[in-house]
Amino acid sequence: MTDIARECGITKMTVSRVLAGGDKVKPATKARVLAAAKKLNYEVNTLAKNLTKGRSGFVGVATPFEGLLGTCYFGECFRGFSKARKRFDLDFVLFDTKLESFQDGEKLTQLYRQCRFDGLLVLGAHMNDSFIESLKSAGIPLVIIGEKPLSSEICSVSCDNTGGVELLCEHLYTLGHRRIAFVEGPKNLKVAKSRREQYLNFCRTRKLITPPHYLQPGTFQMSSGREAGKALLTGHTRPTAIIAANDSMAFGVIESARELSLRVPHDVSVVGFDDLDDASQYSPPLTTVHQPAFEMGKLSAQKLFKSIDTDILPTGQTVLNVSLILRESTAVPPSGPST
Amino acid sequence: MTDIARECGITKMTVSRVLAGGDKVKPATKARVLAAAKKLNYEVNTLAKNLTKGRSGFVGVATPFEGLLGTCYFGECFRGFSKARKRFDLDFVLFDTKLESFQDGEKLTQLYRQCRFDGLLVLGAHMNDSFIESLKSAGIPLVIIGEKPLSSEICSVSCDNTGGVELLCEHLYTLGHRRIAFVEGPKNLKVAKSRREQYLNFCRTRKLITPPHYLQPGTFQMSSGREAGKALLTGHTRPTAIIAANDSMAFGVIESARELSLRVPHDVSVVGFDDLDDASQYSPPLTTVHQPAFEMGKLSAQKLFKSIDTDILPTGQTVLNVSLILRESTAVPPSGPST
DNA sequence: ATTTACTATGTTATCGGTAACATTGTGTAA
DNA sequence: TTACACAATGTTACCGATAACATAGTAAAT
User: Which nucleotide does the CA of B54 lie closest to, via C1'?
Assistant: First the structure.
């Protein structure tokens, strides 16, 4: 930059003005500076620029590596983030929320105060996310994605998990199912809780029978769906329909049915939640609830960027709609529709 | 920092020395400084620190979002990166190689020169990665992960794709299969090419019949495996074994067999490549080649970190071993083993 | 002609650290 | 006692940009 100034016989300051957008600079000077800049292969030093602005130009993305990184949901969300990024002076840095040092938010707060990032996207909230409160109170621009936190003070973008499960239940009920079981997700995830609660809620409202083993534990992984399916399909009072709290587990349930020589959906209906890419490829293609991961990513990133630009902490809890995707894994129960 | 200095009645410089590691500082002074630092809630400004060092403290991870982000492979690799990171003054920034601006390396070179990152990990190399050459010539510390590039000048960590396919072919051949088909990956990926070449190579060596349609195109996605499987299993000269260039497509092939009421492995053997989490959960559990994604990630990150620390560009091409995982998707061909 | 009001550019300080060299003080060898 | 080496700290400049204010020059208004 100093070189450019010398080359043009002017001050560094004027050069800075040109390069920053050239507001009040004589067109002739401007042209000369730009020419010199090109000639000298000038590139801004983002570090220096950000130092004066007190920003790093990086947005943290905190997510449990083990649970989400490498899943379709993560990928879609992240594509959403990137899409929202119009300006190219912001990039994304990944942090693992499972690391011990992050559990209490200490580490993230520290990283923020060290200007290591300008704001934070939290993907996949846990039940015990006390760390979110502590981040919030540290004044970090923050958006939660996945399920809205308890405190309404915190900005979040989620999808209608409750409504989604409602759609699934309603669909099965309408087909005539009365013995509906549920495979739930990890107990420490909020989305898992929301989905389970709504299932229980539905059963209560419609007065469906729910033997204790109808609520099977799961981990959101295919293997746990398989185990749960086995338990359900070999146990007493066999359900005619099984809701898995996500698609992966639904695949597992279908596998277990196959092992037991039960046909889906003829002998048992199976539904999932997420609408993974593979859901339409499976045999049978899976009836499930579509979760708008891409939109969620995009929207949350937009909120965060806006907050960073305006220096106003993000607010508001957005809940996106979900939709039921009817495919071929559901049918009327084998005994025929109930009345 | 200036505050601390004032508090202790000394200079900023001494404070800096203490905080940087306190080489030649009197223990008493050191203690006083540390106490004051804690009292004043001091946190380094990483931006400023890095400005003087000319480093950003961020490592770029360039990967095609569409192909790899959200896959198990990506997740494992990334966990490997994180594991390799002993020091916490380096974090990872994601870039999408599919973005037009990245195609020729221009954008990445620019980001590097703007101090936006200190080094680059390239995950998932394409055939037409001319941009890698241009990055190399720009002097960017660079490690390629996935398949080694043509130029041996460039540092890479890959796994033995050729050997892996060899293991699969050998396994099937030993079981007695002579009609072996192959579902290949996207034509623009290097790994896909390596795997295909080795299959063709094997067929040539063993003089196996290979009607043109035995080499089916694919995209590495389940749906393409399904289509390829359908074509192979309904076509003439039905193969007794099908090698899919990755696990996802193998799942698709199995689905297609199921649709056609063919049993795996009784009627047709199917193998994959990658050893995804779900491979062991599928029915039948998939015989496949285990790819050490985690180790690849770890190793490549180590190489890059070392390079950044020493200011010597990374070199050497490491090829990690793969192993055949025998499960239940392969058996002797229906006609009995050949001689 | 003088004031006014900009416009275009220059000055200086600052962001929060570090490098390099300068200075003081202290203990030890000559 | 003097000199020298080394330990502990201070000075100054600089990394590469920008903010805030200052100044010179020019055109329009009076």
Answer: D15
Residues 6+ apart with CB under 8 A from B85: B301, B305
Return the CATH number of the domain spanning residue range A2-43. 1.10.260.40
Å from the B184 CA to the D11 C1': 68
Q: What is the pLDDT of residue A189?
A: 86
Which residues in chain B touch residue A221, judged by CB atoms under 8 angstroms apart? 277
* pLDDT at position A258: 92
Tokens of B45: 């400004």
Q: What residues does each domain of chain B span? A: 2-43, 53-158+293-320, 161-291
Distances (CA, A) of A294 to A121, A162, A272, A297: 14, 19, 19, 5
Nucleic strand D near CB of residue B56 (< 7 Å): no
CA of A6, C1' of D27: distance in angstroms: 30
Same fold yes or no, B2-43 and B53-158+293-320: no
Summary count for chain A: helices (H), strands (E): 12, 12
The CATH superfamily label for domain A53-159+293-320 reads Response regulator (3.40.50.2300)
Residues 6+ apart with CB under 8 A from A167: A289, A322, A323, A324
User: Which member of A72, A91, A282 has the closest CB to residue B70?
Assistant: A72
Instruction: With cut-offs at 50, 70 and 90, classify the pLDDT of residue B173.
Output: very high
As given in the structure block, the two tokens for residue A330 are: 């559901």
**How confident is the model at residue B299, as a pLDDT?**
96
Buried b (16+ CB within 10 A) or exposed e, A207-244: ebebeeebbbebbbbbbbbbbbbbebbeeeeebbbbbb
> Which nucleotide has the shortest C1'-to-CA distance from A21?
D18
User: CA of B31 and C1' of C16: distance in angstroms?
Assistant: 22
What is the predicted pLDDT for the residue at B85?
86
**Architecture of domain B161-291 in this structure:** 3-Layer(aba) Sandwich (3.40)
CATH of domain B53-158+293-320: 3.40.50.2300
Q: What is the pLDDT of residue A293?
A: 94
pLDDT higher than threshold 60 for residue B339: no
Which residues of chain A does B259 touch, with a Cβ-Cβ cutoff of 8 Å? Answer: 283
Residue stretches of chain A with pLDDT short of 50: none
With contact defined as beta carbons under 8 Å apart, do A68 and A131 qualify? Answer: no
Of the partner residues B76, B95, B222, the one whose CB lies closest to the CB of residue A281 = B222
Interface subset of A 57-86, CB within 8 angstroms of B: 57-58, 65-66, 69-76, 78-79, 82
Q: What pLDDT, on a 0 to 100 scale, did the predictor assign at position A149? A: 74
Three-class secondary structure assignment of A79-93: HHHHHHCCCCCCEEE
Give the bridge partners for B142, in sequence order. B120
